[in-house]
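agent> Task received from the user: take the single chain below, predict its 3D structure, and emit structure tokens. No templates, no multimer pairing.
agent> Plan: (1) validate residues, (2) run structure prediction, (3) serialize to tokens, (4) report one or two observations.
agent> Step 1 OK, no nonstandard residues flagged.
tool_call: predict_structure(input=
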Amino acid sequence: MLETALWSLLSGLLGVGVGWWLVRRQDRVHLASAEQRARELVSQAEKNAENIVKSAELEAKDSFFKKRDEVNREIELLRNEQRDTERRLEKKEDQLEQKHQTQVKKERVLQSTERKLSERKESLEKKLAEAETVIAQQTQKLHEMTGLSREQAERMLLDRVERELADEVASRIQRHEAQLKEATEEKSRKILATAIHRYAAEHTADSTVSTVDIPSDDMKGRIIGREGRNIRTFEKATGVDVIVDDTPGVVVVSAFDNVRREIARLSLSKLIQDGRIHPTRIEEVVKETTEEMERHILEVGKQIAQEANVGVVHDKLLQLLGRLKFRTSYSQNVLFHSLEVAHLAGMMAEELGLNGKLARRCGLLHDIGKAADHEMEGGHPKIGAELARRYGETAEEVLHAIAGHHDDVTVDHIYTVLVAAADAISASRPGARRETLEKYVKRLEELEALAQGFPGIEHAYAIQAGRELRVIANAHTLSDSEAVATVRDIARAIEQNLNYPGEIKVTIVRETRAMEIAR
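)
tool_result: status=success, residues=519
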């Protein structure tokens, strides 16, 4: 047991010793290996440091060389720029020197020219003085030879020049007027023809019928009533005269107011159809028909305004327009005449580049005064302008066209001229209206009498239905230039003093006849 314990102890001690020796040996091996590794790392670090230093030195050298090259290039650029600047300055100096030399030359030339001009001026003044002296001497000799003073000679010369220029001026005026007239007539004919061609209206005159058909003559007695009470009530309610005569199948309604006459005609037709004719029924029917007529008149005014495309119109003016349906002028219906004038004026305005809508409004309202001319004093242009202004018409062109379309006022607006032209076209077209023979003959007599009132005129003849005035002048009294002036004066006098449709051509005939009788 003891020996086993000793052997165990010795074995343990021996194992510990061997283990310690192994550990120490291992430590020495590791230490040697670590030292070797450290030396290698240090050596590698030294090599890397040397490489880094060399690399840094190379990069520094490259950077230095690059910077040096850049600096050299910049220096070279600056030198080039400096050389260019120096060259430009040298060129400018040369140019300035050249300009200076040129200026010096110009100044020398100018001084030389001034001297020459001064010398020439002095020479011309001397020659002018000599010429004036010679002219004065020649003029004095001329006065002595002719026996005329200066004033008398100037007067004779001016008279001669005036006579020569009179013919030239008259000739120029005549040529200018002919050219202007030809151009304006061509343009006017084109515009008028275009407007007439575009607007086609009926060519029949309208007439208002004031008769009422009755089924039998027995109805006349019922219309008259007992002791005439029915007809008296009817005339009092309608304001018309009822004529019951021997004409079979017809009763005539007569009134100055066409609207009242139409109300009476319609009321009488209703009473005849109804059969109940007595004072109470007559008053009811007349009142009912009057209200219907007022509504109808307003509706007609609205339809016409809408058809003419004139925009918003006051109800009172529409009422007056509707009343024109029952008004005629020389058998022409005034409402349809106004609509026709509106369309014609609008077309001509558009041809001239003007406001067609405004022209149509002027044309539609130009005869509005005829709806009330029997109720107000004055002509229908003045009445129409007052009514239009009263009922809110603010356009100055419209008011002037209404007041001036018959030349009652001075024409200041082109739309007035267009309305007057359209009014003449509508009134003069075939079948539009008729004119009495007495008025026609009177107009021709006034035309001839006006022309014969001028000095040097022997005879005047109205030809072509008054569209041309042929004037015979005394050849010994009027010269050619005076004839041109006289024909202008006659035309202006016709325009100012006479009323006529369309235009009148004035022609002066001046001739000298030589006659001898052979025996």
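agent> Step 4: summary for the user.
The longest helix spans residues 2-146.
agent> Done.
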